[in-house]
Design brief:
Belongs to the glycosyltransferase 14 family. It is a single-pass type II membrane protein. This protein is α/β, with parallel strands linked by helices. It has helices at about 1-40, 65-70, 70-80, 90-95, 100-105, 115-120, 135-145, 160-170, 190-205, 225-235, 250-255, 300-305, 310-320, 325-335, 390-395, 410-430, and strands at about 40, 85, 125-130, 150-155, 175-180, 215-220, 220-225, 260-265, 270-280, 295-300, 375-380, 380-385, 400. It folds into 2 domains: about 1-45 and about 55-85, no CATH class; about 90-355, Spore Coat Polysaccharide Biosynthesis Protein SpsA, Chain A, CATH 3.90.550. Helix content is about 40%, strand content about 15%. The longest helix has about 35 residues, at about 1-40. The radius of gyration is 26 Å and the shape is globular. The relative contact order is 0.12.
Length: about 425
């Protein structure tokens, strides 16, 4: 009997210790969750409930009009948020969000986008070349979407399965959004990046939508104009193209005077084109090389001219072993005599500040050509902060690069809000 009592006492003691330990673990977990939530800012597609978030987000009342007016208190709120742990929706969340298309379309307000007759008669095409962060792809599409436009999405064949599933789900929810019929395994500064856009352009030419201009975007771009404003400004081009096209410096000439070969790299990019000692033959057809960027706004007539043109085909083959051929391909072709909307070779350079395609802020030009970056820098390029909202919207360019919700989620929220506000106002005024 005594032995049995001792045994029971030991068992009761073990149970007590176990229960106490379990209680301590639960308390610690609750404290951890409370601290985590307090120090986190959860980003969601605006208008969508928190049902797909694991933890209820701390709510912040941000007045974007005050941010635009550079109100110090409101800008200060955005800076407080930036110091928190920014938690964005992952690719699995986007898969879940877009698995029910009617609910997704309703929750994001696609069905109620304000649209004018002028816009309907001037459809646009988009080429989106992306490889990660499906939540950002979703935001970009929502910001530029109109039901009469057409959208081609090219994802990198190396992208994760979850990202691919999310993007394919997203495209399947719309009749005017599709995945490129031919996909590339894109390598940085390689011909594959140019081919990705060319694949989309070919598909867009074959679509039933008679678009007027095509615009290419990447995963860190965001519009600075409502669709109404963009159409109005594109009409003023009267068939001309909008892109950079400048004479190359001696340093930039090295990119296409020597052959380059892809080599494995032990850092961010898996492979990079490396210059060899082998010089290249002159460009075919006596083409004079100009440089610019990978980004363009091209007329349908120009894209039709490029598609299947023997001169273009030869120039593309010649460019295959150059460094970042997308940064001279379009800039050069737009100078070719006879190309629709061509820029004459004798005309002055068209710089990135003159071309309205993309507003990029380089750190070595801050303070002279534009104000300092209020976000952070990545490889000399500014990732914009909320305090640049007014400057971005008023500078005159059509798209911004770079934006990143992990750097400043409030900037993206306010850009989306202000552009939708402008779209509603202009459509309403235009209907009177």
């Amino acid at each position: 009997m005594k032995i049995r009592c001792v045994f029971l006492l030991k068992q009761q003691y073990k149970c007590f210790v176990f229960s106490l330990s379990l209680l301590a673990v639960c308390l610690l977990k609750l404290v951890y969750i409370k601290v985590t939530v307090k120090n986190s800012f959860f980003i969601e597609p605006y208008g969508v409930t928190t049902k797909i978030a694991r933890v209820q987000a701390q709510k912040y009342d941000i007045n974007c009009s005050a941010i635009y007016q550079m109100d110090p208190v409101e800008v200060g709120k955005s800076l407080v948020i930036r110091r928190k742990d920014i938690v964005d929706l992952d690719d699995e969340n986007i898969v879940s969000l877009t698995s029910d298309c009617p609910e997704y379309i309703e929750s994001r307000g696609y069905a109620n986008l304000p649209l004018s007759n002028e816009e309907r008669e001037f459809p646009l095409a988009y080429s989106l070349v992306v490889h990660k962060h499906a939540s950002m792809v979703e935001r970009i599409l929502r910001a530029v979407y109109m039901p009469h436009n057409i959208y081609c999405i090219h994802y990198d064949r190396k992208s994760s399965k979850r990202f691919i599933a999310a993007v394919e789900n997203l495209a399947s929810c719309f009749p005017n959004v599709f995945i490129a019929s031919k996909l590339e395994s894109v390598q940085y500064a390689n011909i594959t990046r140019l081919n990705a856009d060319l694949n989309c352009l070919s598909d867009l030419l074959g679509s039933k939508v008679r678009w007027r201009y095509v615009i290419n975007l990447c995963g860190q771009d965001f519009p600075l104009r409502s669709n109404y404003e963009l159409v109005a400004e594109l009409k003023e081009l009267r068939g001309a193209n909008m892109l950079e096209s400048s004479r190359p410096s001696e340093l930039k000439k090295q990119r296409f005077r020597f052959q380059h070969m892809l080599k494995n790299m032990p850092y961010e990019y898996q492979k990079l084109p490396v210059r060899t000692t082998q010089t290249k033959a002159p460009p075919p057809h006596d083409i004079k090389i100009f440089i610019g960027s990978a980004y363009f706004v091209l007329s349908r007539a120009f894209v039709s001219y490029v598609d299947g043109n023997p001169l273009v085909k030869d120039f593309l083959a010649w460019s295959a072993d150059t460094y970042s051929p997308d940064e001279h391909f379009w800039a050069t072709l737009v100078r070719v005599p006879g190309a629709p909307g061509a820029i004459q070779a004798s005309w002055p350079d068209v710089t990135d500040l003159m071309s309205r395609t993309r507003l990029v802020k380089w750190n070595y030009l801050e303070g002279s050509l534009y104000p300092p970056c209020t976000g952070k820098h990545l490889r000399s390029v500014c990732i914009y902060g909320a305090a640049e909202l007014r400057w971005l919207l008023n500078y005159g360019h059509w798209f911004a690069n770079k934006v990143d919700p992990k750097v400043d989620p409030i900037l993206i929220k306010c850009l989306e809000e202000k552009l939708l506000e402008k779209q509603r106002l202009l459509v309403k005024l235009g209907s009177r």
